[in-house]
Amino acid sequence: MPELPEIETFKRYLDHTSLRQKIREVTITRQRILKDVSLRQLAGALKNHSFRGTERHGKYLAVDVGNGKQMVLHFGMTGCLHYVDQDDPDSPYARMIVTFANGHRLDYANKRMLGRVRLVDDFDDLVDELELGPDALEIGADEFDERLRPHGGAIKSTLMNQSLVAGLGNTYTDEILFQARIHPATPVDALSAPERKRIYRMMRKVLRKAIDVQGEPDRMPRSYLVPHRHDGAPCPRGNGIVHRTRVAGRSAYYCPVCQPRPGRKR
What we know:
- α1 (about 5-20) packs parallel to α7 (about 195-210) and α6 (about 170-180) crosses α7.
- The longest helix is centred in the C-terminal third of the chain and has 20 residues, at about 195-210.
- The chain is an alpha+beta fold and about 270 residues long.
- β3 and β4 form a beta hairpin.
- It has a four-stranded antiparallel beta sheet with strand order 1-6-7-5, covered by helices on one side. A four-stranded antiparallel beta sheet has the order 2-3-4-8, with helices on both faces.
- The chain folds into two domains: about 5-130, Alpha-Beta Barrel (N-terminal domain of MutM-like DNA repair proteins); about 140-255, Helicase, Ruva Protein, domain 3.
- The mean pLDDT is about 95.
- The protein has helices at about 5-20, 40-45, 125-130, 140-150, 155-160, 170-180, 195-210, and strands at about 25-30, 55, 60-65, 70-75, 80-85, 95-100, 105-110, 115-120, 245, 250-255.
């Protein structure tokens, strides 16, 4: 599932390929991806205008259309963007196709149909409406600690709570906790202040590194968990093997040597 680093990569990709190009046509191949907007409304807002800029909050990408409207993209489990020549075959699972006057087009692809396209007047208002927490790369250390401390659930599922901090999902929470040497099932209220600070530092480190490699797991450092994130893989630190467990119904990968269960000595 695309998380903050992948969405930031999509943002930079769109900025590089698709800004300031007159939009000639908007095609929706599956109406289900539209949220609180009709095809007529979306096409009317985009056609003969151009994308002026983008902003991201957590897993949401907002595109300024330059007429007081913003198109907001959520990528669900499998979403991505493709900028191609207009005569190229449709991208696999293209659900929205924005054709530009320069002979190119931007395809919003979404295999599992869990992504959504919105049209809003103010992205900040949507962030508030969705009750999203601060962006994981924007939140400061003190605010992160203040927001984290009251929670009593497992640290992995808590970090994935988008109302606490926006942008983290299954993959990068595993990496953050591996780097912080914290077991994913550790209750938040059992964490010490130094452990919470370490989680914050590792969150910023991991997200920045993932953005550097454009969200491609195989390009992450071999000392990271992500390239080895499957049951039975060797721990990248050489301390054992990677185990798979479930935390609040979600898969979690960890090293039991580097990340002992709560109550066991590290």
